[in-house]
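To: structure subgroup
Subject: Chain for Friday's discussion

All,

I'm putting the inputs and outputs inline so they're searchable in the archive.
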Amino acid sequence: MAVITFANTKGGAGKTTAALLLTTELLHRNYRVCVIDADPQRWFSKWYEGAALMPRLSIETYVSAPTIQKIVHERRSQWDFVIVDLPGLQSPLLASAVGLSDHVIVPIQGSSMDAQGGAQVLDLLRYLDRKAGIRIPHSVVLSRVNPAITTRSMQAVKRLLSEQDIRVFDTAIAERAAFREMFDMHRPLRKLDNAPTAGGEKAILNARAFADEVLSHVDVGAAAAPAYAARRDPQPLETAA
């Protein structure tokens, strides 16, 4: 089904956090998800290794530019979504994974340095469109945003992207303690002990809105949609409390 790739050649952009939020939201909606953890830091895989059993989630690690095409083609026929988490650096994997994607999401913090890392991905997408006629849908999500204030740097990044006619998601991913605790506790957002609290509830609403916006821009395919449509009230993940 749909292959969604998270890419930014600068580390610390919130790439893996965004990928994890989308993945757990899709699982919560009863989709089957395969994650290709191509980041050498393996943050996603480490989270998964410490988590309770999740039957609808599979993780692929230690992929390379020569092997990713075969893996993606095999997995996309078996799973509703394939999520690719790329390295936070320049890598041969970037062009390979981007070319296999149905949608590329570029997480960018509100800083010029982070925007430069995202610009390398956006430049590649423009090159593929201009030189090879390969047009890959893509969007920017602003990440690690202070929910209380909008900085000048953030405004400058938004303005720069708008001038280049680049789609920026309306939903930004806020800087929230609950998102960090997901990695520390090896749990999905809704399984954190503080999920019912005000901060936890806001984090859940943020993740839900992000997933909704991603799905509004991705063709999930006719076969994937009924799995969620059949359940008006999505069931929680099969994880230990």
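Points worth raising on Friday:
The longest helix spans residues 112-132.
The beta strands are 2-6, 33-37, 57-61, 81-85, 103-108, 138-142.

D.
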